[in-house]
C-alpha cells in the first residue's frame, strides 16, 4: 500500500538557498501560483465584457460575488463594504486550495499548517492593527465586556485575552486538520481497494467514491468557516463589544 502521507511531502522544484535560508520554489508554491492564475484569469474574462443575459461563467462569478457580499453584510454590516476585497480574496484562496487538491497528483497547500497559520496570522495581525487604528487604547475594552461585575474582571479579562490570542491557532488548525484528515482517508481507502484485489476491493472503492463527494462538501464548508470567522474577527475590531 502506498504511503498515505506521501501526498503531503514538500518537494523542491527549483532549489534556492539565500544566506542559509531555504527559499526553494516547491510543489506547494506551484499550486499556489496556479490558484492565483486561475482566479485572476477567470475573474478578468468574466468581468471584461459582462452580458445582459449572463452565461454560465458569469452566473457563477455573480453568484460567488453575491454569496460573499451577503456574508460580509450579515456578519459585519454596512461598514464592512470596504473590506469586501479582503474577504473575497480569503475565500477564493482557501476554496481553490481545497478544491485543487482534489485533482489527482495535485497538491493541497491548505493541508499544511505553515500555509494555514500564515493566512490566520495575517488576518490576526491586520485585525489587531485595525482595532488600534480605529479605537486607540480603547481597543483593550474588547477584553472586558460591558456589564461585567468588578469582582469578576480578574477572571474574565485573562479568559478574553487568551481566547483572543489563540484565534490564529484555532483558525489555522481547523482548516489544516480537516483537509489533511480527509485526504488521508481517501488515500487509505484507495490503498485498500488495490491491496484487496478486484473482488474484495470493490467495497472500499465504492466507499471512497462517497468520500470524494463528501470531501468536496468539506472543501467548500472549510473555506466558508474560515472566511466567516475572519468576518467576525473584523467586526470585533470595527465595533468592539
Strand percentage, roughly?
under 5%
Q: Sheet bearing the most strands, described?
A: 2 strands, antiparallel
Q: Tell me the distance between the termini.
A: 53 Å
Average pLDDT score: 87
Report the total helices: 8
Write down the Rg: 22 Å
Give the number of domains. 1
Order of helices and strands: EEEEHHHHHHHH
> By helix and strand content, what is the structural category?
mainly alpha
Write down how many β-strands occur, each being a DSSP E stretch of 2 or more residues: 4
Q: What global shape is seen?
A: globular
Strand arrangement, largest sheet? 1-4
pLDDT under 50 segments (min length 5)?
A: none
Helix content: 55-70%
Summarize the structure.
The chain has 241 residues and is mainly alpha-helical.
Could you characterize the architecture of this molecule?
This protein is mainly alpha-helical. The protein has one domain (26-46, 55-239). It has helices at 27-48, 56-75, 84-100, 113-135, 153-165, 167-195, 197-200, 202-239; strands at residues 12-14, 17-18, 21-22, 25-26. It has a two-stranded antiparallel sheet. The longest helix has 38 residues, at 202-239. The mean pLDDT is 87.
Amino acid at each position: 500500500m502506498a504511503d498515505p502521507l506521501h501526498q503531503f511531502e514538500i518537494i523542491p522544484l527549483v532549489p534556492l538557498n539565500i544566506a542559509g535560508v531555504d527559499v526553494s520554489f516547491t510543489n506547494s508554491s506551484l499550486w499556489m501560483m496556479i490558484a492565483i492564475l486561475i482566479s485572476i484569469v477567470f475573474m478578468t474574462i468574466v468581468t471584461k465584457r459582462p452580458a445582459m443575459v449572463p452565461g454560465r461563467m458569469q452566473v457563477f462569478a455573480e453568484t460567488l460575488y453575491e454569496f460573499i457580499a451577503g456574508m460580509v453584510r450579515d456578519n459585519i454590516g454596512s461598514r464592512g463594504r470596504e473590506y469586501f476585497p479582503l474577504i473575497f480574496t480569503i475565500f477564493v484562496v482557501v476554496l481553490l486550495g481545497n478544491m485543487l487538491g482534489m485533482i489527482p497528483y495535485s497538491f493541497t497547500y491548505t493541508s499544511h499548517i505553515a500555509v494555514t497559520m500564515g493566512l490566520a496570522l495575517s488576518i490576526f495581525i491586520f485585525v489587531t492593527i485595525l482595532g488600534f487604528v480605529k479605537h486607540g487604547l480603547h481597543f483593550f475594552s474588547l477584553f472586558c465586556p460591558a456589564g461585567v461585575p468588578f469582582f469578576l474582571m480578574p477572571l474574565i479579562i485573562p479568559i478574553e485575552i487568551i481566547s483572543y490570542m489563540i484565534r490564529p491557532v484555532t483558525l489555522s488548525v481547523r482548516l489544516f486538520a480537516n483537509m489533511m484528515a480527509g485526504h488521508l482517508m481517501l488515500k487509505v481507502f484507495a490503498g485498500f481497494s488495490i491491496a484487496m484485489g478486484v473482488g474484495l476491493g470493490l467495497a472500499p472503492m465504492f466507499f471512497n467514491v462517497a468520500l470524494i463527494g463528501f470531501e468536496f462538501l468539506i472543501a467548500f464548508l472549510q473555506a466558508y468557516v474560515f472566511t466567516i470567522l475572519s468576518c467576525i474577527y473584523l467586526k470585533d475590531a470595527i465595533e468592539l463589544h
